[in-house]
Amino acid sequence: MGSVKKYSVVLLLVLSLFLFSGNVVVVEGAWCMTPSGKFAGACFRNANCLNVCATEGFPSGTCDSFRCMCRRVC
C-alpha cells in the first residue's frame, strides 16, 4: 500500500510540473497610439508607417483604417 501512495505522489508532482511549466506571457504595458504627424496619404503598408514613426521617435507604427498610427508603450 505504501508504494501506491509513493507513486501517486510522484505522479502528482510530475503532472504539476507540466501544468506550471507552460508558456509565460509577460505583459509590459498597453500600447498608446498617436496619428503620425509626417505620414502623407493613405496607409497601406505597415513597413512604411513604421519607418515614418521611427523618424518621429516612436518604436513602432502600424496602419489602422488607412491612417498611420505610431505606437509606444504607455
Automatic annotation (TrEMBL):
It holds the Pfam family Gamma-thionin. Keywords: Disulfide bond, Signal. It comes from the Eukaryota. The keyword Cytoplasm does not apply. InterPro entries: Defensin_plant, Knottins, Scorpion_toxin-like_sf. Residues 1-29 form the signal peptide. Residues 31-74 form the Knottins-like domain. Gene3D superfamilies: Knottin, scorpion toxin-like. GO terms for biological process: defense response. This is Knottins-like domain-containing protein. It comes from Acorus calamus (Sweet flag).
